[in-house]
Amino acid sequence: MIPYERVEQALQYLAETDVREAEYKAEVESAKRAMDETFKTIAAASEGTVLQKEAKAGNSEQYRAAKVRYIESIGNHGAVKNERHRNELIIDVWRSINSARNKGQII
Q: What's the whole-model pTM score?
């Protein structure tokens, strides 16, 4: 059984993390764009064949830093998104159990 206090905590968590989840999602998009732009800028400024330009851009410190930022932002967003989903499931299970109890299907 899921105690009502746990459901209240889940509701509180969902209410408190709406903005944070949106901010993390925006950070993922921003980091992805920055990573792509960094790669293109470095490749365009390099000399050589397309393959050489891409290799130089892919091995640059700026691109690696942008890639790390992107990966970290995906992790932050995923963690909040997963925790929100877990709390949504707790609420759904509690709702289902109470509905069945009210209908007399669970004693």
A: 0.83
